Amino acid sequence: MGRIDDLFQLYQGLRVADVSDGMDAVGRRNVGLVDAALRPVWLGAHAIGRAVTARYVATHEIVPPMSPDGYAEYSGRWYAERCSYPFMDILKAGDFLALDLSGLEVGFWGSNVGLAAVAKGAEGVVIDGGCRDTAEIARQECAVWCRARARTTAIGRLEFESLNQVVNCGGVKVTPGDIVVADDDGVIIVPREVAADVARAARTELEADKRSCRAIYESLGRPLDESVL
What we know:
This protein is an alpha/beta fold.
């Protein structure tokens, strides 16, 4: 199979529905379909990329009473020592973060880290857990799919477990380097070893759909748009 950039070219313009059809065509029926509860933060988001994974687990830490100044120091240590974001050091153009937060409604992701990830080249992020600052994320058009719109911070709730290992994201096994495709319909994970074949089959489905819709547009005298061109 070709280089990752070749795969990106194969997947350009493909919808999640097309990729699902492509998975069916290569004998991977119902494989890679991320739980439908993981939804886009804003409608119109669409992204593809190679999976970079991280796993976070619930903590057993009891946060003791302290002054506001003490809590500020405690929070800084928590993010530095217990709940770091090590993927930020390895992200590059074309990556798609797949974060396993053990399904917890914890606001691990927000507008600040979202912009920082975009600056590193991340195409999007799918979170089996919570995201907050969702209005800002929508305004910034950072491509995020998550299980819950959260309110809390990770302090005293979540801690880092592993980077770029196999994770469970929405009931799907995600291996680093798998292809992630996400849009308004949800998220699908394509195992790297079948990604090229899936993309070709998906493209066939998309082009057939466009031809059929285009004929209907023309019969109605409706102006053609990008969905049928």
